[in-house]
Design a protein that fits this description.
The chain is of the alpha+beta class and about 90 residues long. The protein has a single domain, classed as 2-enoyl-CoA Hydratase, Chain A, domain 1. It is built from 3 helices and 2 strands, in the order αβαβα. It has helices at about 5-25, 45-60, 75-85; strands at about 30-40, 65-70. Helix 2 (about 45-60) links the parallel strand 1 (about 30-40) and strand 2 (about 65-70). Helix 1 (about 5-25) packs parallel to helix 3 (about 75-85). It is globular and about 40 Å long.
């Protein structure tokens, strides 16, 4: 895994942790959604994750857990995932 991939994975994990903290602080009691992802990050996978985040938001999930098992992938796809998490 290249240095850039390590940085992207680190940024993604940090964003996910920061995004999850407000949910825990609010004491949300809704269902916990779990999205498992395996394989290379690509545009299709990014779209799947973004749709999953939108669905969890629409259905007022108490928490969304994204479990990643990936060697990395396209930086553009990773950026679109991070932007969706921040919005």
């Amino acid at each position: 895994m290249s240095r850039g991939s390590h940085i992207l994975v680190g940024v993604l994990l940090a964003v996910m942790l920061l995004w999850a903290c407000p949910l825990a602080a609010r004491g949300a009691t809704g269902e916990i959604y779990v999205v498992k992802v395996a394989g290379t990050i690509n545009p299709g996978l990014a779209e799947y994750l973004i749709r999953s985040m939108e669905q969890a938001s629409r259905e007022e999930a108490g928490c969304l857990v994204i479990q990643l098992d990936t060697p990395g992938g396209l930086a553009l796809s990773m950026r679109s995932i991070v932007m969706a998490m921040l919005s």
